[in-house]
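Q: What would this chain look like folded?
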Amino acid sequence: MTVAGALAMDGRINLGWAGAIALLASVLGDIVGYGAGRVLDREVLERRGRWLGLTALRRIRVEALFEQWGGITVFITRTFASYLSSVANLLAGLSHYPFSKYLAFTLAGRFAWTSAYLALGYAVGTDLEAASGFLTNLSAFLLCAVVLFASASIASGRVALSASAAV
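A: My prediction, written as structure tokens:
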């Protein structure tokens, strides 16, 4: 996507068409994964899932995310943790997560991902030093956001635990 953005900045391809094609292709791929999860049963996925990238560790991580966060998991696996998206697709289908919600979160996440990478490529073009600096800053920002989110989750869990212990 960053290469497509750089090519669009250079006038070699149309930015809108590149984004639309990438968005459509990624969402269709996600829908196929969701459908596979609906068709396959848990036993088949546990025995043959490694062929689809469903390792035991990935399955455990994504199931934990789904149990706690539902649709936010779909969004996060489309943007920040896209390497888990194929596993999330299968598990969303397997757990019969409502398709309308799944599709809405998938579209939002894929739109954000596609837009961000296209914009990065368009903004930096062929300036690799600018791209490297941007990615370093983005990584630091995301790391801080994850730490803050985790800290807030832990703090709210402790408050809830101490409140229930007092009762």
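The chain has two domains: 2-126, 127-167.
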